[in-house]
Amino acid sequence: MTMIAQPIEMVDDRPLKPALRKGWSGRCPACGTGKIMRGYLKVVDECPNCGEDLHHQRADDGPAYLTILVVGKSIMALYLAVYLAWGPSPWVMITLCWTLALALALYLLPRFKGALVALQWSRRMHGFGSDA
Fold first, then answer.
1. Which pLDDT tens digit goes with each residue over 40-97?
2. Which of 50, 63, 85, 120 is within CB 3.0–4.6 Å of 112 for a Cys-Cys bond?
3. d(C-alpha 101, C-alpha 17), whole Å
4. Is the dihedral of CA 30, 122, 44, 69 positive or negative?
5. Domain ranges in the chain?
6. Which residues are listed as membrane-spanning (predicted)?
7. C-alpha triplet 72, 74, 77: angle, nearest 5°
8. Distance CA 46, CA 52 (A)
9. C-alpha dihedral sign at 122, 124, 126, 129
10. Alpha carbon of 115 to those of 27, 76, 97: distances in Å?
């Protein structure tokens, strides 16, 4: 008797794109309503709306690396473009670029962290899938 292997059908009950959008906006990747952050970067242990456990997250340094990558590349491109177009004094360039870099980093860091937590939730990483 020969056995024929049949493909296992994958069920994607946690689609990635909606989860990333919810995480980017600071909302629970499961329900999209509850806030994922308490304060600036502290992830709540569970969603205040649906009760989804979020304490499994292991974002660690990932959001900081992504923020440094995006801010560094974009500010250096802006620095070069402004310098070549208008040639302002060094103090104007430093003030402009440091201010923009700080503002962009403060804006992106919690969004990258929320998206990374949502990615982990969606892909059932680090204990997020133990109940399924």
1. 999 999 999 999 999 989 999 999 999 999 999 999 999 999 999 999 999 999 999 9
2. 63
3. 27
4. negative
5. 16-122
6. 64-85, 91-109
7. 105
8. 5
9. positive
10. 9, 25, 26
